[in-house]
Amino acid sequence: MAELSDKAREEFFSEAQEIIETLSRNLLSLDQSIKAGSTDPSLINEAFRAVHTLKGLAGLFGAVRLGALSHRLEDVLDDLRLGRIELAQEVLDVLFGAVEAYTRILQAEKSDSDEELDVDQLFGELERIGASATPQDSPVAGYELDPGLLAVLTEYEEHRLRANIDLQMRLYRLRVQFDLSTIDKVLEEMKERAKRHGEIITYLPTGEATSADTIELDLLMASRDDLATLVGSLGGDNLVIEEIPRRARRSAAAGAGAGTMPPRSPTALGRPDSVGMVPAGERGGLEQTASLRSLTQTVRVDIRKLDHLMNIVGELAIVRSAFGRVAEKLRGEGQRKLAAELQRLHRNFDRRLGEMQDGILEVRMVPLGQVFDRLARVVRQISREVGKEIRLVITGAETEIDKLIVEELSDPLMHMIRNAIDHGIEAGQRRVEVGKPLAGTIALNAFQKGNHVMIEVEDDGRGIDLQGLMDKAISLGKLTRSEAQEMSRDETLALIFLPGLSTRESADDVSGRGVGMDIVKTNISKLGGVIDVHSEAGIGTKMTITLPITLAIVSALLIQAGKHTLAIPLSSVSEAIAFEEAGVRFVDGREVITLRGQTLPLCRLDRLMGLETAGGSASRRRFVVVAALGQRRLGLVVDFLFGQEDIVIKPLGKSLGAVRGFAGATELGDQRVGLVLDAAGLIEEVLAGVDAPRSLERASG
Amino acid sequence: MVNLRQSTASRLARRVGDRGPVREFLMFSLTGELYGVELTRIKEILSPPPITLVPRAPRDVIGVCSVRGLLVTVLDLRRRLSLEERPLTRRARILLGEAESGEVIGLLVDEVRHVVRLASHEIEPAATALGGDVSAFVLGIGRPAGEFLILLDLLSIVSG
Q1: Contact between A503 and A469 (Cβ < 8 Å)
Q2: Please, which residues bridge with residue A599 across strands?
Q3: Neighbours of A23 (CB within 10 A)
Q4: Strands, sheet with B104-109, edge to edge from the N-terminal-most edge strand
Q5: Distance between CA atoms of A691 and B49, rounded to whole angstroms?
Q6: Least CB-packed of A221, A585, A635, A681 within 10 Å?
Q7: B65: which chain A residues are within 8 Å (Cβ-Cβ)?
Q8: Between vectors from CA A314 to CA A308 and to CA A318, what angle results, nearest 5°?
């Protein structure tokens, strides 16, 4: 790759990455539309444009391999959109292969490696597809279309016209007056509305505008609906719709097929005035300017820059507290007027700071759709590899979450989906035997719940084999037979998170890559999340991931334990209650209390952490903060509650990396630093022996 | 913070060009002994800010503090060097150094003295002076103006 500044390179990579993701999304939509029995031509068109842009980009940055692939792919997509090639699953396979190849090439370019990437096979397949292209004829001439119009149609528009005629669509001419200042917007809206009825194939200026500020366009539209419907839906003061009649010999043309081309009538009805027509090339130019404009609306920002901004906000918050203290001091010294003024400034500053913080947080948020798109590709690939038909149903792709979390999510989710396809969904034959639909369904649902984002991966497969799981755990020595007998259903299910457990005997191609659910669990907890599993034999399995929305700034409850001021992220706190020593019971050597009829395990923070106790009598008022994540709850006994505060969590240094129980530290003002508890980690640590038998603790520890 | 560089510069100006390659060491005291660390390794000298103890941390970690928004782990140099513990005085300071990982680490010392310049022949290698089995933290022994100075390798202390 040519010598470039780092910044330009970064820009290039992220733009190329974005385009490839768009392409991948288009192909997935195409895949679905083919399965539904139709193809949306605008999707092929978008894919074509994406590859075209990529080719240009590759040329600009001297990325030869990227350019070569784009060039070949562009040819095939061009043939596709012009109908010279039929869009079949096999063709899509090759196109998806191209997306994979793009990703590999991009990675190689990024690491500046000149490693030979084997793309010959892909190129061969692309070429083979291209060679199968056939020029097509169709009965365009069966309509009273103006030859002047036909002459300026681009090849693509001509193809669309033919395709619509093949589908027995009616053709309409819409003559519309546009205001020059708003034409872009109004035309887009019109296209959008017309989409419900059919497709606008082309538009040309008529040159008959009523004033200097308006322009009149003739739109050629294909639709299944009749004239009255269209007039009702699209009609307006400045719009005239006419149907373009078929020629008398329509039946002959349609019946005899593409071979017979009746002579075009020079006196065609509905012929628009050809004066003032713009050549097709120029219209193309207009389209391009439009798309360029929309591109410049977005700015790509390195997430570290946002972190930096967030740190500054954190420091400003400390300045803000100092403001408050000065105001208090002034009031104490009798400077009431100055104090009031400063107080006002302080409140104003506070509000603006809050807005700024929200603004930065919002920028960090990205829709989960980013990672779901990648997963959809994986599902398609795996399902074809293992020969199982899979229907992927995605809901809540618009749910937003911190960019950093999204990046870390794709591997765990990918593995869960691999598991679901491979271990969960039964083979087609088996499914039919048990009365399930042939195609297995995997649902990927995301939704926001308070300060959390929940992601569910659900399949309608055979469910987890509890007995098999138990046997495996016993054979691996992680469990004794008597312990196994005492285990509850949930405890047994939790066994899948132990290292080395997989219900299948053979490690196979798809799931058996050495990554187990234990790694998935570890990765999720690194993000401050938890994973829960539910499974019903014969009905399916559902895994639920609970994640915080952002890692950057959190609302936290400040508490005192021993002599320590600690923060607990509020997202993992369900409530705080007064603690009554008398209510404590011992179950299996563990302290518990009863909260609204349910048993709540207790953890005395000062003892667990070996904190210096605050002293004082045992009768002193204390509190229980109920930490809850997913299904698990833990009562933390603390000495005092200070209240809620927004904090910026900073990770502890590498030298403290091995210290468990803390998610980081935060500045409390007055130069003091408070430690932030890792609620997920604490729950994990304390409840390890409740969720699973004691021996597991030993085995995994 | 003491403005080291300037005072050093003026001192240097007085003693220009005496003997061979010269290294500058910051002299500080710890449990009654004098120690030195190479000046270039020190990013900053602080009066100790409030330090938050970190439960479960290794024994020689005192805790964490904030230096203008940066979270710094503070080590007790006495504990790291297995010295006797003594209460802090108001002369106590924190030396900031950078570990190999890039993490900024604070070292708590009893009192910072001044900067000494030592030519290589004034530095006695640790192995020669103390026998083969010396702590990896000790660079050697310096004897400026009749004093006995244990020279420490700051990088290995904060990276260890």
Answers
A1: yes
A2: A594
A3: 25
A4: B42-46, B93-98, B104-109, B70-76, B61-67, B52-53
A5: 42
A6: A585
A7: 671, 673
A8: 145
Residue A88 pLDDT grade (very low, low, confident, very high; cuts 50, 70, 90): confident
Parallel/antiparallel/unpaired status of strands A564-569 and A239-244: unpaired
Q: Flag if B99 and A671 touch (Cβ within 8 Å).
A: no
Q: Are residues A667 and B66, on separate chains, in Cβ contact within 8 Å?
A: yes
Q: Which of A311, A654, A665 sits opposite B101 (nearest CB)?
A: A654
Residues recorded for chain B: 160
ipTM (interface pTM):
0.81
Q: Rounded to an integer, what distance in angstroms lies between the CA atom of residue A15 and that of residue A611?
A: 51
CB contacts, 8 Å: B106 with chain A: none
- Whether chain B has a CB inside 8 Å of the CB on A316: the answer is no
Query: Would you say B70 and A648 are in contact if contact means Cβ atoms under 8 Å apart?
Result: no
Nearest alpha carbon to residue A455 among A552, A375, A358: A375
A vs B, Cβ pairs < 8 A, gives 73
Q: What is the mean pLDDT of residues A322-344?
A: 87
Q: Which residues of B touch A315 (CB under 8 A)?
A: 68-69
pLDDT > 90 fraction of chain B, expressed in percent and rounded = 28
Each residue of A579-588: pLDDT tens digit? 988 889 988 8
Q: Is B46 helix (H, G, I), strand (E, B) or coil?
A: strand
Radius of gyration of chain A (CA): 33
Supply φ then ψ for residue A700, to 5 degrees: -90, -20
**Strands A440-449, A390-395: parallel, antiparallel or unpaired by DSSP?**
parallel
Spatial neighbors of A610 by CB under 8 A, at least 6 apart, are: B55, B56
Dihedral Cα A415, A420, A423, A426, nearest 10 deg: -150
Residue B82, sorted as left (phi over 0), alpha (psi -120 to 50) or beta, turns out to be left
* Structure confidence by residue, pLDDT tens digits, B6-55: 555 445 444 444 556 788 999 999 888 899 999 999 988 989 889 999 99
Question: Is A206 within 8 Å of A278 (Cβ atoms)?
Answer: no
- What is the distance between the alpha carbons of residues A62 and A60, in angstroms, rounded to a whole number? 6
**A425 touches A440 (CB < 8 A):** yes
Strand pairing class (B138-142; B149-152): antiparallel
- Whose CA is closest to A646, among A676, A613, A684? A676
Contacts for A318 with CB less than 8 Å, ≥ 6 apart? A667, A669
What's the CA gap between B38 and B152, in Å, rounded? 8
Task: Give the residue ranges of DSSP H helices in A365-427.
Answer: 369-386, 403-419
CA distance B134 to chain A (A): 24
C-alpha span between A133 and A232 (Å, rounded): 41
Quote the tokens at residue A317: 């918050």
Angle between helix axes A89-110 and A64-81 (nearest 10 degrees) is 160
The answer to whether B96 faces chain A, any CB pair under 8 Å, is no
Question: Over the Cα atoms of chain B, what is R_g?
Answer: 16
Q: Which residues pair with A205 in a beta bridge?
A: A217
Under an 8 A CB cutoff, do A611 and B55 touch? yes
- Which two structure tokens, joined as six digits, stand for A321? 């507290």
Q: What are phi and psi of A43, to 5 degrees?
A: -70, -45
Find, among A78, A22, A31, the residue nearest to A50 by Cα: A22
- Given an 8 Å threshold on Cβ–Cβ distance, is A609 in contact with B55? yes
Exposure of A386 in the CB half-sphere (CA atoms within 13 A)? 25
User: Which residues 6+ apart lie within 8 Å of A198 measured at CB?
Assistant: A164, A169, A221, A222, A223, A224, A225
Residue A293: alpha-carbon gap to chain centroid = 25
Which of B60, B64, B98, B157 best probes binding to A when mutated, by most A CB atoms within 10 angstroms? B64
pLDDT by residue (tens digit) across B82-105?
Answer: 888 777 788 899 999 988 888 899
CB A682 within 8 A of CB A627: yes
Q: How far apart are CA A224 and CA A210, in angstroms?
A: 31
Structure letter (DSSP) for residue A537: T
